[in-house]
Amino acid sequence: MKISGVHHVAIICSNYEVSKKYYVDILGFEVIQETFRVARNSYKLDLKVGNTQIELFSFPEPPPRMSSPEACGLRHLAFAVEDIEASVKYLQSHNIDVEAIRVDEITGKKFTFFKDPDNLPLEIYEI
């Protein structure tokens, strides 16, 4: 088997409208398709992020994330940015708390973390 890349990442949110606004209007992800699944009383929003897709799901009363960010499973999502300082200022202008910028001791690149409306850790990493 040869894996050629990441096709998509799935995120379950607790408030679909809040998360949709966050990922589309603030982070600027492009909507590919929005589907309401009647049988599940759930939305599925396909978003384009560069060459990757994010599936944003809503489910009635999903359980909360166990701990942040050190629980087993997906630790965080990291997004590439060209200018981390400008990206941090942009997020802060939308009242999003952003951690202090750090430098990756292995690559020497700048990065930082922030959270989505459901406390999912997100990272921006300067390329």
TrEMBL record:
Q: Which InterPro entries match?
A: Fosfomycin_Res_Enzymes, Glyas_Bleomycin-R_OHBP_Dase, Glyas_Fos-R_dOase_dom, VOC_core, YwkD-like_dom
Where's the VOC domain? Answer: 5-127
Q: What is this protein called?
A: VOC domain-containing protein
A Pfam family matched in the record? Glyoxalase
Q: Can the keyword Metal-binding be found in this entry's annotation? A: yes
What keywords sit in the KW lines? Metal-binding
Highest taxon in the source lineage: Bacteria
Record GO terms (molecular function):
metal ion binding
